[in-house]
Amino acid sequence: MYTCGVRRHSSLFLLAVLVITPFKPLAAQNINMAAVSAAEDFRSGVQAYNNGLFNKSIFYLEKSLAENPTDNRTKDWLGLAYYRSGFSQNALNLWQNLIDTGKASALIRTRVATIAARRGLGRELSQQSRYVVAHTIQGVFPKYTVFQRPSAVAAMADGSYYVVSFATSEVLVLDANGTLVRKVRPGLSGFNHPFDIVAPGNGYIYVSDYGSNQIVRCTPSGGDVKRFGSTGVGPGQLLGPQYLASGGDGYIYATDAGNQRVTKFGYNGNYVLSFGQPTGGFGGLTNPSGIAVYDNKVFVADHDAKDIVVFDTSGNYLTTISDLQLNGPEGLSFYGTTGELLISDGTRVVLYNVNSGAQEVIADLSGTAQRIVKTVVDANGDLLATDFDASKVFVLTQYDQMYSGLAVQVDRVFSEKFPDITLNVTVESRLGSPFTGLDGSNFVVTEGGYAVGNPRLVFTGMQSDANMSVLVDRSQAMESHKSDIQNAVSTILTALQGHGKARIISAGTTPVVEAGPDVPINAAVRSASANGQYTSSWHFDQGLRLASSELIPKEGKSAVVFITQGNLGKGAFSQYSPTQLLQYMQANDISLYCVLVDQTAAVSQELQYLTTQSGGKVYYLYRPVGIGGIVDDILGARDGSYVLEYTSPSQSDFGRAFIPVEVEVHLFSRSGRDQSGYFAPLQF
Predict the structure, then answer these.
(1) Distance (Å, rounded) from C-alpha 582 to C-alpha 446?
(2) Model pTM?
């Protein structure tokens, strides 16, 4: 009771004070309305950026910067919005100003250096660099064995690779981190000292089974097993088959050391022919080892003769390359599609260009390796080399890229379900090649400097479908090709079913989305040829810009397929230059593919430039194999995008606080990072 009385009397006293105290107005608070407005516009700019609305983001960020010209954070974000919109020079100018005034972070400096390298001659110069060991994968340990005497390795597009363990009679699959994923077991009998492996892209792998004198065909999981070849010296028989090759032409070539020849089989196992024996102008193979196929030619390493012998695919002897000063060549493979032959030669890897004759030792592992028997390029541009005697697999990286790190870009931050956050991240080499095959262990995510725990990797770009814009040329020359347009669009959309989505866009005087991704195929095909006006005042640049913009935000492997007669016309780049268009596509991982309806028409140099530099290709509509393969090419393209999820530990201040996010990626000796941020939804 006493306590209640005190409270009651105190309340009466305060009421009396309020009654007898004269009213005085509160002093006006000094509120900087420009700063408040700048903060609101910055918030809107960040949200627009994370929603993939880069032009809208530029509008708000420029407005915010006008209200608060000294805000360096806004300048950085405005540079990002410029860059993603294709205005790279504007972005570089902003960031360079921050560098010149000493206001740039190390991250901004790295970003500027990376963009400069991609715009310059970095790609060409990097090809002259030697390879060094970035990581060693040990096969034999004191208490257990992963693999022993690895005789071959074969890379897969997702960053993983096969390792053939000769001594333990196993074929293993390792991921990009060198971790064992699974073993391939072809039926109950398994392998008997397998030696080499090829995956020609027909859904099967082929393994030379040295111990059984056979070739084993099976699916990557070990199913649908077929064995062909048998022990002997007759047609189709083998004595110690070792190295394999496939030119993608439906045939498998095997070096048969015991019979001193090469034997050719069809994909289904049917015997075709053998070659390499002495002929009128050729003394015959003495000890055939490595083999590779390029440009309808078969290159065979003769270990004892220390040279490379060249045949055509029918087995006819063509020439011998004998001036390479090799020590004992074994495994052969081709580096890309430009005729550069990788030769495993003892403790060296030699690169020989079969077109120009240029030769160089690109890796010398003397003192590190004992016997390199096979070297291939992996999905990320590194080399994988098997050391047979040391039971190791080496991951080799170009020296000038080993310490330049990875280029990491946080594309978007989804915060609508805060505190559950989703990140879209792209990982590339410094020169822009996608890095595939990473897993959650390669990523470290922090907010405001504090780790968020283990982020969950929920999706990778290599698993994604195709996200496509079909852009149709509306020049007057295309009016007579309406049936060709319908044929092209119908073929592409039919091939795409179940593997992605597409929209139809016409490039006329003003570009128009004629059909969205949910329109039935028949209606989309009609709109591709019938809608819009064919005119001489059509604008390719505006059409390509709209077609690319429709693919943002990125939801799959993004590509624009341009159906055209090849001539872009006089007003092709009235609003956007080829460089701006390319930068826009590259900044958002979009490739340009072209379908020509007229094989005799000359392709514009600018169109060829945009197609090649963006990672696309040019096709003729009526080529013998058709154009449905465009979808396969898009789906098979390397993609370094990843989706991560985590639970934020940060306080959002009811959605008013900017929450910085940093993503760091580690792979062997390489690392890279990027910083972004977000606002949680406002709470009232």
Answers:
(1) 32
(2) 0.86
